[in-house]
Amino acid sequence: MLGKLVKRIISMSNPNGENAEEQPATKRRRRGNRDGTNAGAKREAEHQGGKDDNESNTTIQKETFDLHSIWINYNLSWKHSNTIFAYDVSCWQHVHGAPVIVECLKFGTNENDVGKGLGRPIASPAQLSYEVPLHFPPNVFRQANLDAFTHIVGRIRQRMLQLRKEMKHLPACVELYGGVGTIGLHISDVVASLVSSDENPNNAKCFYDSVKTFPDHIQSRLDYKRKNASDMIATESTLIQKSQVLVVDPPRKGLDSEVVDYLCNTGWKNMKLAVYVSCGFQAFQRDCNALMKSGKWKLEFAEGYLLFPGSDAIETLAFFVPK
Q1: What kind and span of H or E run contains 160?
Q2: Which residue of 174, 230, 282, 287 has the fewest C-beta atoms within 10 A of its own C-beta?
Q3: What is the pTM of this model?
Q4: Burial group, residue 282, by CB count within 10 angstroms (0-12, 13-18, 19+)
Q5: Residues contacting 77, CB < 8 A, separation 6+
């Protein structure tokens, strides 16, 4: 059954990625004369050799679409779960087309470049000397508005370049909730080491597929941990304590309590900068208040972004520095 469905979808798609729609030979008249007769249709039928409107010699319009790829997900979750896709690699089957979409972020070249839907200049940090190809199969998270999210990544890169000047050496960085490395990989040239992490087991391959295109001396700085943020705090405390930069981009629910507790107690001691990207403003307010009330952090910078024009969803970028 699935095989037949896949073949049907492929047969309806554009094989060459071109618009294969055939235009009708003539435009049909849908209305008669004002007096209610169908004289116009009769004249058209006479013009086409006496055939009536239903039998007119018109080409049927064939609707096609561009097809990138087809994947099948076998979700083994029990019936009352609201999980749409199963994470496990064995639950995914690639049956047609390219296995991933590869995209590169393009930063503005100067402060006059205007971001799409932002209404203000795009961040224009110094470009990396190498390309960062981000790999997105369907079993990982991708920002819906990647063009606008580029502005956030650019702001982070600008701040990291500033931090490098302040420290006079390259800082060590840990990234929690890292996804495929969309943020971390774009600061890979301004850190002494980067350890990204995420609970989705499919992210690591995407991360390393990007990294293998980097220069050798950059590749040696980068690593990925297949762990959620709470496990990173519990099992990688030494690694995190040695880092000077922490990047977090949690889901809408905000930071896990273990991450907040760590930052409010001992995590601030060796840190120079905490970068927080939030897609849930109420959760951000909660976490921001906790960090500020701890007396260990101050909010250096915060900026909101409308990644979905017409909605009330706000993406927030904030930089926290220890007091």
Answers
A1: helix 146-167
A2: 282
A3: 0.79
A4: exposed
A5: 83, 86
